[in-house]
Amino acid sequence: MKIVALAGGVGGAKLVDGLAQLLSPENLTIIVNTGDDFKYRGLYISPDLDTVCYTLAGLANPDTGWGRNGETFQVLENLQKLGVLKWFHLGDQDLATHIERTYLINEGLFLSQITRSFCHSWGVEYSILPMSDQPVSTMVDTIDEGELPFQEYFVRRKCEPKVKGFRFAGIDAAVPAPGVIEAIMQADSVVVCPSNPWVSIDPICAVNGLCDILATKINVAVSPIIGNRTFKGPAAKMFIELGIQPSPLAVARHYKKFLTGFILDKMDEKLKQEMSVPTLATKILMKDRDDRRRLAQDVLNLIQSLQ
Amino acid sequence: MKIVALAGGVGGAKLVDGLAQLLSPENLTIIVNTGDDFKYRGLYISPDLDTVCYTLAGLANPDTGWGRNGETFQVLENLQKLGVLKWFHLGDQDLATHIERTYLINEGLFLSQITRSFCHSWGVEYSILPMSDQPVSTMVDTIDEGELPFQEYFVRRKCEPKVKGFRFAGIDAAVPAPGVIEAIMQADSVVVCPSNPWVSIDPICAVNGLCDILATKINVAVSPIIGNRTFKGPAAKMFIELGIQPSPLAVARHYKKFLTGFILDKMDEKLKQEMSVPTLATKILMKDRDDRRRLAQDVLNLIQSLQ
Q: Is the confidence metric ipTM above 0.85 for this complex?
């Protein structure tokens, strides 16, 4: 079975790791949100891409899910001594990625080429594609502080400002990165990982042409919400602030334009009757690599039943 | 006594440290060669400036004389894993300097402003000035391999190619950094540190107007050569390849346009009779901080005798 996964950061990377435990590299392509990308002291940082790559390379920090395992912070500590504000917890190993990516982008290479080269260096055989080679910046519109760039909202303001909407700056000029459309066309199904619908999956779907092609596929989403809460990140808080009761149902409705199958947690099994697409209830919290594989198997089983 | 020191890297930084042990910040300004500056993976690296700054900040690696004390190399190791050739032994603490300098230069700040800001952060009260804010690149013309950028000659080719000349690319557009001319004008004397005459001191003197103003001052040089050898670096080898017998005498002749006093090693005391300027023979090898201070005191004593 050929699968394309749409992923944001930590939650997405976990399910992607589960899928990679079951599928060979020619049968799994991962399309990753780049709306969170930002520059820090001139370095081009692509948090979701790195999280997915590090996870599949076995280099990720198992405690945080992001950043590198056994990381040190000499560069950051010395930047602080030079008076640089420390917003971002960037480690030394991780910084090598950012330095080299910045260098190659300034040399004129595309993010997709760079990501392929890095994956090759890290021994990752799966295709990990940025959603677009053109820069797209997720802007969070807030009630009290106006529009904030995503990382400013997420890291510096710790998701505290109340949101009233989102804008993906640059999206009009963005086209899918090479291989994105082809991978979706050839896939038996698209898996929407349990990432934030508003700021991880929506930017991917907003890239020109992606939504249209998704509408032609079997698309299975895994809820990032259990009960009325997320495991991690501000998705539930965003639903509330946008006037929507957070729940797996709200997530499924969010994806209604293209959704053909849904997976929610056993705890929310009663909601199956309200779902308008075939829905599987299973354990969706991924605490270890076995959980990831089991959930990925459930996803593949649901897809098979939909074919 | 108000002193300006002209310095390259390690040898220059040592004498500067000696002078700083004897002179207060308002009485010592250091003008540093930037002809060795280069870019590595897009990062702007200024080796001599950093060596002088780290030395006066007490941050320098006491074993090498360059780089940082207690340094780690996580970034470099991870750059290598991404396929980047490791020419330069750049540590993590050191890289923070290069990242921030690159960021600020790209923001439009001048190297002299950045250096002042970094020195302030590191607690260095002495004025350390780049020779110029405009980029100057020392090119080493070699017999067999044509013209090589300095770092390619020095680090990658380990000074092996035979030299036949030097060119300071960009020198025509370079003007002295703010404060350079003023510091020399106000100084009682200029100290030419025991740095490489060809590639550390000559680039400084080649900056527009510097040579002319030096000619109006008391200028005391410390030989970087003892007998026919240097303590470090390719100066002696360069003299030979350029057809000149390396010796303190050759160094003094090299500086003849502006030299008013000279210091050579006790071992070379017999050469004093051949010198055309007042010359002091003393122990010029600086093995520890006391040696640096003693040599600096000898320099100040010679200057006093010349006033």
A: yes
